């Protein structure tokens, strides 16, 4: 019997219907990119209101695709953490209301664990235990994953997430929002050594990351210290490409180096990688290269499951197997603190 999964942690409103064996029967995502583009970043208030408008049509669409009615649903799973408070609340209230009205049990999904579980969905054999690297717009974290839902946090960013750095660099270069895909595309024809950007914490004996210094270094390379108005700066097309390539290389160097160190130090055989930035082609190539050199297994989330979606909410099936249901008292956990 299938479950309904709901995702609204940031700026995608998504719902999916997934069979007991993990087959995707229905999958609907309403993106808000166009709404946030003019602000060059996600505006929480705008995101929450847009979720409110879209959540029910998105759920309806997922059920219609699956060609089932709510009667055939056995449980309702919802991402309750981490994320933007207003966005999370819309998904949670929708899930709780439907759980009461349809008399279905509720399952709480950790959005970051779900990003990693996207790797399992693309594999027939069990990929746990392993090291997990989450690279998204809001998080950059390393975990020791004992199984899909039992994870030990090893370290994470002490300031900006890597996706946020991609987006800010995109904004500085006026490449639109979200900047990640555009920066990555331009980087393909840039010189990766044109600018010597910092690889913060790459040698630190821990699993933490820092990307704000890298972001500032790009800013200084464009406007110099003290200047803020990027719109008045003319940058030659090749220089833009070189900035993107040098930035991407610095960010990816740190991610690959720290993830590989975690695999080695914790004596794991496998690295799994999820989150929006896992769609980055250069990161995927460098990870594959490092896995081949160091001799560990690598699973990166399939491209369409990298950015936010409700299909990865299939992790709820693992909780259901363990009878791990949430009560109707379930509240959101935005999870702004480190170590989440
Ligand atoms: O996982 P996600 O959809 O949302 C969060 O949970 O935050 O990740 C969104 C992030 C954005 O920062 C976006 O720019 C980045 O993923 N992203 C990329 C690429 N595709 C998406 N960053 C670099 N290269 C890409 N190809
Ligand atoms: Zn995400």
What does the model show?
The chain is of the alpha/beta class and 340 residues long. The chain has ten helices and ten strands. It folds into two domains: 3-115 and 306-321, 2-Layer Sandwich (Nucleotidyltransferase, domain 5); 127-300, Nucleotidyltransferase, domain 5 (2-Layer Sandwich). Helix 5 packs across helix 6, helix 6 crosses helix 8 and helix 7 runs antiparallel to helix 8 (237-265). The model has no long low-confidence stretch (mean pLDDT 96). Bound molecules: 5'-O-[(R)-(carboxyoxy)(hydroxy)phosphoryl]adenosine (KG4) and zinc ion. Zinc ion (ZN) binds at residues 111, 115, 136, 275, 308.
- In CATH, the topology of the largest domain is named Nucleotidyltransferase, domain 5
Gyration radius (Cα, Å) is 20 Å
Structural class: alpha/beta
Q: What is the string of SSEs from the N terminus onward?
A: EEEHHEHEHEEEHHHHEHEH
- Known CATH architecture of the largest domain: 2-Layer Sandwich
**CA(first)-CA(last) distance:** 32 Å
Oligomer: single chain
Present as ligands are: 5'-O-[(R)-(carboxyoxy)(hydroxy)phosphoryl]adenosine, zinc ion
- CATH domain class name of the largest domain: Alpha Beta
Name the CATH superfamily assignment of the largest domain: ATPase, nucleotide binding domain
Helix content: 40-55%
The pLDDT mean sits at 96
Number of DSSP helices? 10
Biggest sheet architecture? 5 strands, mixed
Total number of domains: 2
Shape: globular
Q: Beta-strand level of the residues, as a percent range? A: 15-25%
